[in-house]
Amino acid sequence: QVNFVESGGGSVQAGASLTLSCTSSGNPASETPLSAPCMGWFRKLPGMKYKEGFAVIDGRAVTSYTDSVKGRFTISQDGAKNTLYLQMNTLTTEDTGIYYCAADRGPVGYCRTRLVNYLGMDYWGEGTQVTISS
Length: 134
Description:
Blueprint: E1 4-7, E2 10-13, E3 18-24, E4 38-44, E5 52-58, E6 63-65, E7 73-77, E8 84-88, E9 97-104, E10 123-124, E11 128-133
């Protein structure tokens, strides 16, 4: 069941920027508000079995990042919380992968832990491909 739709992926050269967006799938049966206590971006890198978390934002708009993207990526939401964004700058070939947005209904206090425990996220998008060439 797809709850969100990601967009903005594509193929760019190293050093370039991309902005990903995440919106509700629009399916009333699966519609999930993006105002969950925790929203995040995750990715599945080539050859890796599992997804990895790298950016989350909680209901208080507090953001957390892994070291791999800190200073280069920014997670944000619009004021109405209809769209989740990911601004990615200074992209490298190591950023190539499938990018997913996800939501967690759990307590706000657990949001930062989702960076290392993506299985705690309740709702997911279908993913968008990001390919960085050298």
